[in-house]
Amino acid sequence: MQSLHKKWLAYEKGFSLAMDIFRISNSFPKCEIYSLTDQIRRSSRSVNANLAEAVGKRRYPKHFVAKLTDAGSENFETQTWLDFAVECKYISPEAYQQLTNRSEEVGKLIAYMIRNPSQFIKAY
Q1: pTM listed for this prediction
Q2: Which of 1, 17, 33, 76: CA 20 to 30 A from 42?
Q3: Structural domain total, the chain
Q4: 124 assigned to some structural domain
Q5: Cβ contacts of residue 6 below 8 Å, gap of 6+?
């Protein structure tokens, strides 16, 4: 049986985005491996980790929303690292725009979940 969070559109889109960020960050300079590369990978993956943790908190609506809020915060952090990546010329303006647009879409989906938690707090 597939975990509940893996059925959420925010999770699907967030996972795809994190994987694309992983792939594109492979081209970052080696001097960034412990800074920008690590940070952007961690924050983009943390969006989904927090969505998964929200499932474990679903019996407690305030805790559920708190984990969703953490997911949204990590998404904003990812956008900040994308800002640095484009300014440092590690990614093209086109790649930046495409990744940022996708991140904004994930953010909107998470915001919807925060505003409508009862639709997502379901036993399975």
Answers
A1: 0.93
A2: 1
A3: 1
A4: no
A5: 12
Distance, CA of 39 to CA of 98 (rounded, Å): 19
What is the structure's pLDDT at 82?
98
Is residue 35 a part of any domain in this protein? yes
Segment holding 33, helix H or strand E? none
CB 44 within 8 A of CB 52: no
The angle at the Cα of 64, spanning 100 to 81, to the nearest 5 degrees, equals 25
pLDDT (tens digit, 9 = 90+) per residue, 24-56? 999 999 999 999 999 999 999 999 999 999 998
Amino acid identity of residue 28, one-letter, is: F
Cα 72 to the center of its chain, rounded Å: 7
Please give the residue range of the domain that contains residue 77: 4-119
Question: What is the residue type of 100?
Answer: T
Q: CATH number, domain at 100?
A: 1.20.1440.60
pLDDT digits (tens, 9 = 90+) for 67-114: 999 999 999 999 999 999 999 999 999 999 999 999 999 999 999 999
**Could you tell me if 75 and 47 are in contact, meaning their C-beta atoms sit under 8 angstroms apart?**
yes
| Mean pLDDT confidence for 3-15 | 93
